[in-house]
Amino acid sequence: MSTILIEPLTAEAFSPFGQVIEMAGANHYPINGGMTERYHDLARVELGGVHARPLISIFRGQPYELPLTLKLVERHPLGSQAFYPLSDRPFLVVVAEDLSGVPTTPRAFLTVPGQGVNIAMNTWHGVLTPLGAASDFIVIDRGGDGNNLEEHSFATPYLVRHA
Asked: Which phi and psi (to 5°) does residue 12 adopt?
């Protein structure tokens, strides 16, 4: 079993897979008579296919423990998928590039409080992986006609752990 070492989540490291959703470094400005600060355009919602529409949901994920045995990744060929935690607990983000229809060696990123991710359309990724305790997430993804889920099971699982 190959090992994947967990990396810190940064916008630069994650850029091949989508965007990091965070206030740090974001374009922001006051609205509502100066009583609200708007952190603007943090991620690109991608919608493809027939009758596409954005969905806003809340997911409640059960916790995982590290090290993690990674057996499966999935992708959504018709839309991006954004996850923003409703708590300060970290979560693990596993992603992989595509090579002729199959994922390459995955990478794993660990969030810090205030970070979420928007996984780009058609990007291989692991399932929602909260750590330590059950966690709620705002999720923005695609609804509409068509099959928007592909899964890939690894012939040999990966072990995901801290460096």
From this structure: -65, -50
DSSP state letter for 47: B
Q: How far apart are CA 125 and CA 160, in angstroms?
A: 14
pLDDT in tens, 72-116: 999 999 999 999 999 999 999 999 999 999 999 999 999 999 999
Q: Is the pTM of this model over 0.90?
A: yes
E strands along the chain, which residues? 2-8, 18-21, 28-31, 36-39, 53-61, 68-75, 81-85, 91-96, 98-99, 102-103, 107-110, 116-119, 124-125, 129-130, 135-143, 150-161
10 Å CB burial of residue 66 (0-12, 13-18, 19+) is: middle
What does DSSP assign to residue 100?
A: T
